[in-house]
Write a structure and sequence with these properties.
Largest sheet: 2 strands, antiparallel
Strand order of the largest sheet: 1-2
Number of helices: 5
Number of strands: 2
Structural class: mainly alpha
Length: 116
């Protein structure tokens, strides 16, 4: 999706993954995928799980993978686990935090300026 820019009002973010800018979005389908992966029965359950701030590395891989797929990228969770993301684990965490804020904040504002 060259040239496509993220639309924060739709819950989209941009992140550099494997040397390319990619759009990520937790669409309804991506959120349903995460509900199943995390064994929760609602979006509120998902939000509660994420707001605890205690995510495992596998959780971050799943969230980024779902966001990439929701943004139209062909990435499996295994691809995400092996992806080149600047900043290592901190870079993964920043993408997850930004994606969750864009999805659950509901105001479309730039979430990067807000603490998690």
């Amino acid at each position: 999706m060259p040239g496509r820019r993220a639309n924060r009002r739709r819950g989209e973010i941009e992140a550099e993954i494997d040397g390319e800018r990619r759009v990520l979005c937790l669409t309804l389908g991506a959120l349903a995928e995460l509900e199943t992966a995390f064994s929760v029965d609602s979006l509120n359950g998902l939000a509660e799980r994420f707001s605890g701030g205690r995510l495992k590395a596998a959780d971050m891989i799943r969230i980024i993978g779902a966001g990439l797929r929701g943004g139209g990228n062909l990435y499996s969770d295994e691809d995400v686990a092996e992806a080149d993301i600047e900043g290592g684990i901190g870079g993964y965490a920043a993408i997850v935090g930004d994606l969750l804020m864009a999805t659950f904040s509901g105001d479309g504002a730039d979430a990067s300026a807000r603490p998690l």
